[in-house]
Amino acid sequence: MTVVGYAPGAYDLFHIGHLNILKHAAEHCDRLVAGVVSDEVLLQTKGRLPVVPLAERLEIVRNLRFVDAVHAETVPDKLDTWQEVGFDVLFKGDDWRGTPKGERLERDFAAVGVEVRYFPYTMHTSSTALRKALAALTAGEPVHRGARVLTS
After folding, report:
1. Number of domains in the chain
2. CATH number for the domain including 53?
3. Quick check: is 128 in a domain?
4. What is the mean pLDDT of the chain?
5. Of 149, 123, 99, which Cα lies nearest the Cα of 15?
6. Considering the domain boundaries, does residue 129 fall inside one?
């Protein structure tokens, strides 16, 4: 039986933490699908747009040798994504472990036979920290991205 793993994330401002979770995930399944959360879902769930647009984030993740496929996540409910993709294991950073969101994820996926596995969260690097550093560098000057103008 082929074990399909799914590793969702924004993968915005791609960094070593993203690389680590995807590498670890690939070691624990036969086929790894990386779910890249769409701009619209990020705006809906986190209240902000990513810095790097979806098409570019998909291309970056797709080109990692240990990622077998990418999936643009256009719905916020991971169970809906599971119905579209069909995976056996969902991988998350351990910053989700023991949180209400993590417990709900585990409960929902246990009901359909999907295991949730956690990998160490990279504390020293995060997209949030990178966003803050960029904001500090560009204080007072908007950062242009395509047709959008981003400010912090």
Report:
1. 1
2. 3.40.50.620
3. no
4. 87
5. 123
6. no
The first and second tokens of residue 48, run together, are 């902000």
Domain residues for the domain of 88 are: 4-123
Residue 20, C-beta contacts closer than 8 angstroms, at least 6 positions apart: 119, 120, 122
Whether 56 is covered by a domain: the verdict is yes
Which of 95-99, 105-109, 146-150 reaches the highest mean pLDDT?
Answer: 105-109
Q: What angle do CA 111, 114, 26 make, to 5 degrees?
A: 165
DSSP symbols for 51-102: SS-HHHHHHHHHTSTT--EEEEE-SS-HHHHHHHH--SEEEEETTSTTSHHH
Task: Name every residue whose Cβ is closer than 8 Å to that of residue 134 and which is 6 or more positions away in sequence.
Answer: 13, 51, 143, 152
127: tokens are: 């997209």
Q: What is the pTM of this model?
A: 0.82
pLDDT-derived band at 29 (thresholds 50, 70, 90) equals: very high
